[in-house]
Amino acid sequence: MVLGDADPLVSAFWSVAVSRRDEPIEAMRAEVPSVERWDLWRATEPKDERGKAVKCLYLNRTSSSRVLHGEAGTLGDRERRGEGIAGRWAPETVAPRILRVAEIGAAGRITVVDGDWQRTVDVGLGMSPRALVYADPPYVSAGSRLYARSLTAGDHEALAAGLTGARTDGCAPTTTTRSSVASTTTSSRVSAATP
């Protein structure tokens, strides 16, 4: 399985979860969700992979709609000083999920790609020409407000064409149409899984 994301925070999270599982779990157990900590993590620009992974995890669990960038706000009401911000902060629920990802990674069944959809598809198809590719590109209209890396309508068309061209067995990919652009759903995440 190839997990790829053009957002360096997301790809760092997957890389750390796969190879250094204890780090995100320990970080999550050490944090106490608050509006002040949310503001700090939002403003922080980590340079190392661990810092990016922890920022991703913190913002994913404490931001409205799990959006890491753009116009996202805190989960809950800021004026009540964070009531509700911890609503999805569940280390005892998240830790087993990270451990499971790490188990699969330790078995050599996960490759993490820090890059765009084309690089992720290339890595997946390089592993197996029969790779299953699941693409989840950002919404065209709201993408720039929600994601670190958004796609234009032209980018969505290139993704759809790239996935169609990647087929080797004569079958057409399943796509959905959003804003008259053929794509395969929403967000800059692309996963390619090999059987």
SSE topology:
Layout: E1 2-5, H1 8-19, H2 22-30, H3 35-43, H4 49-62, H5 91-106, E2 111-114, H6 117-127, E3 132-136, H7 143-146, H8 153-166, E4 176-178, E5 181-183, E6 189-193
Parallel strand pairs: 1-2
Antiparallel strand pairs: 1-6, 3-6, 4-5
Helix pairs in contact: 1-4, 2-4, 2-5, 6-8
Summarize the structure.
By secondary structure, this protein is an alpha+beta fold. The chain has helices at 8-19, 22-30, 35-43, 49-62, 91-106, 117-127, 143-146, 153-166, and strands at residues 2-5, 111-114, 132-136, 176-178, 181-183, 189-193. Strands 2-1-6-3 form a four-stranded mixed beta sheet, sandwiched between helices. Strands 4-5 form a two-stranded antiparallel ribbon.
Radius of gyration: 18 Å
Count of beta strands = 6
Number of helices: 8
Residue stretches low in confidence (pLDDT < 50, at least 5 long) are 168-195
* Strand arrangement across the biggest beta sheet: 2-1-6-3
